[in-house]
Amino acid sequence: MMYVRYPLSLRQAQDLLCERGIDICRETVRFWWTRFGPILAAEIRKRRVQYRCYSQWRWHLDEVFLRINGEIHYLWRAIDHEGEVLEVLATKQRDRRAALKFLKRTMKRYGRPKVIVMDRLRSYRAAMNVIGNVADQECGRWLNNRAENSHQLFRRRECAMAKFRNVKTLQKFTSVHASAHNHFNLDRHLNCRETFKEDRAAVLAEWRQWRRGYSQLQKFAHCFAFV
Asked: Per-residue confidence at 51, pLDDT binned at 50, 70, 90?
């Protein structure tokens, strides 16, 4: 949880665990998030199906530029009106085909939104012409600030990991990171302190419950851990 949620490196997570009496190698941390991260992320997405209709009101779409092994890649991200990360997709191109793939993938999971806020990238309009929802598009100077602010968490994570090595690792980690962000997104600026503390305790309890549910997998991880 510490490595996925916070902008920590493998060695920093190793030092924090060592201070708590858990002496492991940094490769053990990498093995844990690689093995159990997608499982917990899938569990989070599965339990958030009840919020599907709530996320169909307004979407914010934007893309992030990344450099992997000297080549430019693009990470497409869809955010709802409350800052929840709906979908992420890593591609090498930023054309109509990539935008269409991203929109179809997001709508397949969450349905068709009422309003889609985006920048003036022509690939979006070309893809939405194929889907048939151009009338739902909104463009404005400050309308997409929700997506721009959401990029900051990913940028901090990218700096802590010293960038990514390949597209497969990028796609895998961003999916896990987005799900963990959604699970711990409590909107503390909208609630009083007591309500926030109650929600935080419930979120942490649910996270620990998922971990106990995968005790057998954790036992398997300890057998192959690089101690």
From this structure: low
